[in-house]
Structures are given as C-alpha cells and as structure tokens.
Amino acid sequence: MNDTPPLDDFPTGPLIERGLARLRAASTDAAERLADAAFAAQVAKLIVASDFALETLCRQPALLAQLARDNAPAPLPAPVLEPQQPELWPAQLRRYRSAESTRLVWRDVHGLDDVDATLADATRLAEVCLQTALQALEGEFAQRHGVVRNTEGAPQRLVVFGLGKLGGGELNFSSDIDLVYAYPEGGQSDGARALAAEDYFARLGQRLAKLLDEPTVDGFCHRVDLRLRPFGNAGRVALSFAGMDQYFQREGRDWERYAWLKARAVAGDIEAGEQWLASLRPFVYRRYLDYTALDGLREMKAAIAAEVARRELADDIKRGPGGIREIEFLVQALQLIRGGREASLRERRLLPALQALVQAGQVTPADGQALAAAYRFLRRIENRLQMLRDAQTHMLPEDAGDRARIARALGYAGWPALEDSLQAQRARVSREFAELLAPRKRRIAADALSQYWRGLPEGSQAETLAAAGFADAAGADAALRDFARYSGVRGLSDAARARLDRVVPALLDAAAKSPHPDAALKRALALLQAILRRASYLALLDEQPSALARLVDVLARSALLAERLALYPLLLDELLDSRVAGPMPERRLMRQQCTAALQEEDPEAALRLLNECRLALSFRIALAALDQRQPPSDSTRQLAWLADEVVAAVLQMAHQDVAGAHGRVPGGRFAILGYGSLGGEELGFGSDLDLVFLYEADPQATSDGARPLEAGRWYARLAQKIVALLGAQTAAGRLYDVDVRLRPDGAKGLLVSSLASYTEYQRERAWTWEHQALVRARGVAGDAALLAAFDDTRERTLTQPRDPAKLREDVVKMRARMRSELDRSDAARLDLKQGEGGLVDLEFLLQYLVLRESAAVPALLAPRNTAALVRALRAAGILADEITEALLAAHSVFLAEGLACTLDRRPRLVGRTADVAAACAQVRLACGHFDLEPDPADSQTSG
C-alpha cells in the first residue's frame, strides 16, 4: 500500500463534471438548480463520495429539489402500498429506500449527521421498510387465508426479530438485515383457504423476505438473512414462542447468546415479541459472573481468524485484526460475563453498553473513550465504503481511484494519511481485544503441586505437600485423595476437568502461601465440591487468577465467609466486583437493591432475590471488616441498615399477601420496632433480629376483603407472615432469625400490640430492664405516623420520674443475674458480651444513666447506639472527658474482637490480651464510679 500514488494523481474534476452533466440531462429542473454554483459544489461532494447517490438522483431527479430546498433534508414519507396494486410494491419500496439512503449520504457527506445518527437513521429506514411491507402482506394474507387466532379467539400476528446491528439500532449503510420470525402460539387461520399457524407465518415470512430482498430493475430494498433462526437453514422459517423456548433450553449455543444479546422486535406484534425476549434473558445473561462466555468468544474469534487467513481478509475492517467485530466481541463478552448481575449492562446498543461498562468499573474511562473513538472511526469508513456503490463490503479498496475518492471525501490529503489513522485505531483495538482473551499466566512454582494433583488418587506423595508448607501434610493428602475419588470429579466433562486440573494446583499453591495453609485447603476443597457442576465458577477461578488468590486469602482468614461461599457460590462474584475494595454501599443503594427484588411477580423468586441481595451486601461488608478497611462500628451500622431495608421489603411482601387474602383494614396502621443490636445499629454477622410489632386501628374495624378479619387478627396475621418470610428457607438460605420475646408480656403476650396497649404496658407494668431495652429501641419500618407515635411513647416512658436508689438496685440485680446465668468467661478467656467489664456492663451503665437523667436532659433520648450515647452523656456533663474517651476506646475494642470472632466462626470468648484487659478495666472503673458493680452477694443469690 505504501506505493499508492498521492491524491493529486487522481483528479476528481472529470468525475464531478460527468456526474453534473448527467444530472443536468436528467431533468430541466435539475439543470436549473445546478446553475447555482454553491449548490453544484455541494452536489459535487456527493458525487465524489457515492456513485450510488448519483445514480439515484439520475433516476429520481425530483429528489434533487428536496436536497436543494432544505439545508438539512428531513426523512421522506414512507410509501403507501395499495392493496389493489401488489405488483407495484417492490418498485415503491426500492425507490423509497434508494431515495432515503441518498438523503443519508447527503447528510453524512455535508457533516449534518455524526456517525451515530447515520447508523440510527439507517436502522430506522430498515424498520420502516419492514413494517410497511409486512402490513401490506398481512392484508393480502388476511383476504386469502384469514387470520390466525389463539385459543381465546384473539388474532395473532407475525413477530419479526431483528438481530445483529439491526437489533442494536446500529445498521450500516448497505448492511443485510438479520431476521428471525416467530409467532405467539399455534392454531389455524379462519379464512376460506385456512392454513396452520406454522405454514401461515412461514409463508408470510418468506414473502416478506422476497419483497425486500429480491433484485428487480430497481435494485433491492434490503438484503435479508434468515440463517440466525433456530437450526439455521435447516430450521423452520417461523417457530411458535413455545418452539423457540424449547430450542434455547435444549440446543442454544454460546454464539447464539452473542447474537440474541442485541435482539429486538422490529415489526409485527412488537409488544408480544418484547415480552418473549424478556423470558429469553436467562439464556443470554446467566445469573452469576459467567466467564464461560470467554470460551465461546475464543472459539468464534479463532474461526474468524482462520477465515481471515484463508480468504486473505487482512484489509477487512469488520473481520480483520483490530476491526469492528473485535470491538463488538469485547463489549459483548463483558456484557455476558456480568449482565446477569448488573441490569445496566443489558444494553443492545454497543456505545451505550460500552459506557455502562465504564460506569460499572469494568473498562477504564480512558480505554472506553479510545474504544468508542475507534468504533466510530471504523463505522464511518465502513459506511463510506458501502456508500460508494451500495455494496455490502468491508474491504478496503484496491483500486487507487476508489481509495483517493474515499480519502478525499473523508477530508484526508491522501490515502496514506487515512491509512495511518486507520492502522493506529486498529492497533489499539487489537491490544484491548488480545488483553481480554490472553491466556492466563500460571506460576511456575505450582508445577510440583500440579504433578502431585495429576498423580492422584493413586500416585503422588504427601511429602510434596509438606515441602509446600502444609503442617498436616498427611491429613491434606488424604483429603485431596478423597476429593480426587469423588464422583463429581470423575464425572466432569473433558473441558471442565481441564479447568479443574489448572485450578487445583493454583489453589494449593495459594493455600500453602497463606497464613493458615491447612485451614485454607480444607475450606477450599469444600468450596470446590460445591461448584464442580457449575462451569461458570470453575471458569471464573481459571480465568481470573486475582479472584483465586483473593478467594484463598478469604478462606484462610474467615471460617464464616468460607462457609457462606460453599453454601452460596454466587458470592464468588463479589470477589471480582471492582466496587468491593471501594466505598461501601450507601443506605440508598441498599434500599434500591432490596426494592428491585420485589419486581419479581413470583413471591418465591422475589424472596430468593431479596436473600441473594442480602447475602451479597453482607458479604461485601464482611470483606471490608475482614480487611479492616473501615472501623468496626461502620460495619455493624451497615449490617443494621441492611436489616432495616430487608425488613421493609418483607413488610411490603407480607402486606400484599395478607391484603390479597383478606383485604385491608380501613384507616389501619402498622409498624415494626427494632430492639437490641438492631435498634442500636450494632448488628453482627449472623445476628438475629429483636422485633416488636405495633398497630393502630379502630377496635371495631374489619378488613374489606372477601374473607374479612377484625383488625387485631388481621395485624396478627401480618406479623406472623413477616416472621415466616424472614425465616423461610430459600435456595439462598434464610433472611434472618427473629426473636419476638421483647414484646409486652414476653412469650405470654400477643405477637402484635395495639399502640394503646403498648403504651399502657410501658407505663404501668413494664420492668426496669424492659425500659432499659427501650433505650436502644427504634422504628425500622412501617407507617411514619405510627412510628412517630411510638417515639412519643418511648420519650414519655424514659423520662418518667424514678427513684435513683430503686433504679440502681434494679439495674444491679438484673446485671448480677445475667452474669451468673450467661457469663462463659474463665481464667484465660473473657466472654465479650457477658463477662465482667464486657459489652453488657457498658450497655447497662449507659442505660442506667439515660433512665436516671433523661427527664432533665431530653437530648439523651435521640441516640441509640453506644458511641452516640457516650458522647451525648459527655455533652450533658454526666461523663467526664477521660471516662468518655476510655469508654469509646473500650467499645471499639469489643466490636473489633466480636467481629473477628464471628468472621472466624469462634464463640465470642477472647484471650485476655493487654487491649482487652485494659478495655474491661475502663468499663469496670466507670461502673464503679457510678456504683453499678454488682455485689458478690447479688451474684450468688440472683438465680
């Protein structure tokens, strides 16, 4: 190509003159308009860029008048296909498409449209032609065969799906259109010459393709490709939705996921088509991170590369290296990997999909910008290649004159300058694409472990594991031999076994280098056994060494997270989420994700999705706690927020269920209160929820449904449903265990209390310890007015006058009793919660001070969590500065130690380290300062 003569050696003057002469000869009006030198110059640019546009103007010279009249010519009206003159339809469609296409060339050449607009207009043109042609043919078929009706007698229409660039709204200038035909359900037409639905819609589809595709003296309208339908050319021309479902369930292949990712209903019954496409989504987008998509991509790319080499297509800007197809594959592969989890990535259009990937952190902003620029550059050249003669080509021209015309029309000094720009863009695309598909590098250090693994279950020696760093090499060897003999391993496909043979040595290597090799290996084998049949997870660990390393690190340090990963492998996705290491999700995002689960119509599916949402968010919080990326108090607060949002979502589900069965209680209100660690926003991993239910309604009211209930029973049913939903077992586990014993009168009391009875109980019959519990109580979900009324009751209860001596006596006796019954401390270890100087001592101290002082200091009523209560007591002058700082530090130590215990599935019994001992001493000192230390006699007699 370097010997291409400069542009000046290919003068375009004669070309322009010949073209203008032909137009002047086409009509008197054209000749008059071209007498205007400025307009003639505009037409000259068109002539240089497109022989096709010149031919169209010579055939339809009236079109020149519109171009001359309108600076930015608008779309032409679609042709009207008269039922009485079907013989005219082909010419009408072809002339319309030629005229509209010429208008697109005009707008492109004169800079009136960018490439995005040109692609969108080319798509719109194809849709108009499809819809116009189909409507005419449907009328003809209705006269001849009647219409096909469903089982309820409603008429059915053909559904035309556009795949590829038509589906994505990015059709190039002279592209064929990839169509698939379908129809909602079987049946028979109701005309005199009845046809079965299958034959009716197949014939209709074939006629549609012929009307658009068949060459005539006027050329063609659109080339139609039906080969992407199920079973390709061997398959039926049109299938029912049920037939389509069956095909994709049994026969769907990886490349079809890429094809149907862009699918869109473009003609016929568009609404029915879009509804069916929604049901196809699980085939296209897997629920989990799906790195198996890369296998299909590698196979497709290899086939294309072989074709490029065989047919010498290096100059093909679509299929060649660094071409349009590589950008499309790159974007679509990332969409398929993550689109099942991130709805924002389920985008048919390439450029918006690329931007969504940037926003999701899967493509860097710089790479996204570069790929978008390359895509637009290549698509513009593709359009200009096709505009030249309306040919479906992607090959750079060999003819020097054609090269010169394209370069000149695109504003380059010559072909070499255009070629330099083109090569730079293609090189950038090739680099990005190669990076995505690059074979993953393996550590050489794993070679000995790889040989060890491949020798199992009969060969190999445990000494290899001992040399690698496993303390219990014999135990590890036995576990690995058992795993190698496991039926699930023996039954793997060749491809899955090849993945496993790469993954296991890498896991062994990473486990050996971890802080706890033996624990990491034991937990890793449990996880592998859980995911063996899930190709997407093996693919994730195989394709992403960073995920594997992160996994082993987590397994080594947290028994809780290892257990959750084995039970719910969907959490593996979180290890690769770019947001995991970033800021934790805000409460607003938690609410959005929990609410999104409720969009599922099936209650069981909605509950499962809600549980998956809770699992993923709590796992992310756990990772932050494990890595100490945030203070312990932040983690416990986020867990409480998450519980709030889950409870609110479950309330909505339960309310719909009870209302569906029994109607609603007119004027009734309902609210859920959180006590304990939920109320104090200090929830731990795996903590249960202390809930109390309130309602307010006319005592005589009944619900307005077909099976009415009086108000008390209605709200009791609602509360029962909430508890059942929170504890229901789903494929993603259960949401939360619920403890409702803190309600008025405890286990003997009603599950749900009216506001009046709750208020009366707190005022007249509640024990001091129940008022202590009220200090941390807060509303978490339900009617805002009722929650405000609860706050009023709480305020009146906490501020009522108290005898300080009697208050102290009650608090000390209750603390002594709890310590006697619940404290598991021994000489070496402290019970973080119940031990002397532990969390409960600190909580009792704060609750005692709030009950004693809040009548005089109302500001003490607002805070619920420990740290805020300590600071409020200091602000009120009740706690000295040095005691405040000591208590805050002690609380932080307790939270950190407690989280560490739960993350590693250990009881909350910790060694009496210097930090723990100091924290306990400060709490005991503060309790002693206020004379709250239980007397030994109290501890001995409290039981």
Explain this structure:
This protein is mainly alpha-helical and about 950 residues long. The chain folds into five domains: about 70-285, Beta Polymerase, domain 2; about 295-435, Nucleotidyltransferases  domain 2 (Four Helix Bundle (Hemerythrin (Met), subunit A), Up-down Bundle), CATH 1.20.120; about 445-575, Up-down Bundle (Four Helix Bundle (Hemerythrin (Met), subunit A)); about 645-800, Beta Polymerase, domain 2 (2-Layer Sandwich); about 805-940, Up-down Bundle (Four Helix Bundle (Hemerythrin (Met), subunit A)), CATH 1.20.120.330. About 60% of the residues lie in helices and about 5% in strands. The protein contains 42 helices and twelve strands. The strands form three sheets. Strands 1, 2, 3, 4 and 5 form a five-stranded mixed sheet that branches. Strands 6, 7, 8, 9 and 10 form a five-stranded mixed sheet that branches. Strands 11-12 form a two-stranded antiparallel ribbon. Helix 15 (about 350-360) packs antiparallel against helix 16 (about 365-390) and helix 24 (about 515-530) runs parallel beside helix 27 (about 560-565). The longest helix has about 30 residues, at about 115-145. Keywords: ATP-binding, Ligase, Magnesium, Multifunctional enzyme, Nucleotide-binding, Nucleotidyltransferase, Transferase. Its EC number is 2.7.7.89, 2.7.7.42. GO terms for molecular function: [glutamate-ammonia-ligase] adenylyltransferase activity; [glutamine synthetase]-adenylyl-L-tyrosine phosphorylase activity; ATP binding; ligase activity; magnesium ion binding.
